Amino acid sequence: MAKQTKQFKQNLVKSLQNVNNVAYMGQLDENRWLLEFVEGSFKVNEAWFIKTPEGDEFIALPQQVLNSLINNLQNHHEEKLLILLRHEIKELMPIDLEDTMVVAIHELDKYKGNNGNLHAINVKEFAKRIKAAHPNLFLHLDKFFNL
């Protein structure tokens, strides 16, 4: 199964790089269009490059590939946000960074949408809110030096 998935991905990447399956799209009537392949053919595991008479170009991908691409983008967005958040929390001098990150991730989960996606947030302000809500997780040097 894993070998088939790997082969599927390799075929898809090749079809995207080589532009193997090119079709022209022409309108038959208001609701019907005709695809005529001028290179390659209709293959369910490869991308299709579609051109219109007006010069517009489209790429059609299998739905599972598009879903996988969207999931990867969402995961990368969340990872980037966590990296930025870790940096901002470090700047606020936590007593234990890992403990503070656990709390921050728990708080961050509250900002996820109904579909589980994490929306864009201001990580600097979010880190400050974590410090304000959980002061026991951070050093307060101003108290030590009477600042």
N-end to C-end Cα span: 63 Å
Give the overall shape.
Answer: elongated
Task: Characterize the main sheet.
Answer: 4 strands, mixed
| Percent in helix | 40-55%
Low-confidence stretches at least 5 residues in length (pLDDT < 50)? Answer: none
Radius of gyration: 25 Å
Beta strands, count: 4
What average pLDDT do the residues reach? 86
Order of the strands making up the biggest sheet? 2-1-3-4
Structural class: alpha+beta
How much β-strand is present in the residues? 5-15%
The succession of helices and strands, N to C, reads: HEEEEHHHH
Number of helices: 5
Outline the structure in words.
By secondary structure, the chain is an alpha+beta fold. The protein contains 5 helices and 4 strands. The protein has helices spanning 2-18, 63-91, 97-109, 123-133, 141-144; strands spanning 22-27, 33-39, 48-51, 57-60. A 4-stranded mixed sheet has the order 2-1-3-4, with no helix packed on it. Helix 2 packs across helix 4 (123-133). The chain starts with a helix and ends with a helix. The mean pLDDT is 86.
